[in-house]
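User: Aminotransferase. Structure?
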Amino acid sequence: MDYETPLFFHVMQYAADADRDVIDLVSGGPDWEPPTALRDGLREYADSDPDAFQYPPSDGLRELREEIAARRGVDVNRVVITNGAGEANYLGMAAAMERDAGEEILLTDPVYPYYPGKAKMLGADVRLVPVGDDGHLDVDAMADAASDDTAAILINSPNNPTGAVYDAETMEAMVDIAADNDALLLSDEVYDHYDYSGRFESALAFDADHVVVTNSFSKSMAVTGLRVGYAVFPSWLVDDARTRHMLVNVTSARPSQVAVLRALRETDAAYYEASRDLLRERIDAFTDALDAAGAEYIVPEGAFYVFARFEGFPGTLENVERLVDEAGVACMPGDTFGTHDEWVRFALVTPRAEEAAERLADYDF
Ligand SMILES: Cc1ncc(COP(=O)(O)O)c(C=O)c1O
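Assistant: Predicted structure:
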């Protein structure tokens, strides 16, 4: 199989090797503090008895699953703890392909690059459905693209890379389109804590037995390295997903799960609000500077990316490398995200995001 290695690594390495100061806006690893309770949990864990260093239950610590189930309003048996949303998305796509109810996975264009990579790895045919100019789902185009051959439709809100947030009406329409075509709707909600529009709706709000919701604590608690995510499966799919998770991973890391559980219980809303405020301010400052640079961009309603383009400066890998060398700013080339080779993506996960924006405003595109 011809596996596609994500370009992230290449660009990050190029930036690291550059002979100058470079502000890295390439990948989405938060730079802000995790919850205090999470650090406390990890610290205390080091002094646990030896049995705490052994396998947890394969589908995750019962108490963590219960905490998630209570928060999401679902039966605990539907919750599987995964190695991040990345694995949860893989399990969802695998479940869709195993049903033998179609070979195609519908994704949006632009798209988070790991989705097509994973879908192809699972033998799916990938179809990219363009979104509107504002980054919002084109529900009619999705309905037209869906067919008997659709195994799954994977959507992501708040969205990486556009920052679009899908409202309740859109989510309901997508649940219906999937049902009409006997497909699974996979809803990746990993940025759900970063909704600045107030319009975010989870696919779990709709009582449907063909919806898989994936999420993780990577972004909400700023701990991409801990690898704790989860999937909420419909009851009829969960056993197979659990088995696949067990055969691939055995289980997921216990210390991470214990620390996340503690943080879930002890962290109040102010922590999440502070992260949102920080990012909202960064986005505003960054987009102001993009205005000064004469760039076009999709105004982010959520998440922490800005998808932009500069007149006469397509977002090719070559131009991205020029930006590293000449402006001291590293970002992702647009064709990584589907058919958007005019565009680039900035991940605002550094306190230097505003400084990067100023460098862009000063750069002669
Ligand atoms: C849309 C989306 N889904 C999933 C992931 C992976 O998340 P995790 O760290 O939970 O595996 C990312 C990471 O950037 C993402 O942007």
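Residues 269-292 form the longest helix (24 residues). The pocket of pyridoxal-5'-phosphate is lined by residues 28, 84-86, 112, 156, 160, 188, 190, 216, 218, 224, 229 (CB under 6 Å).
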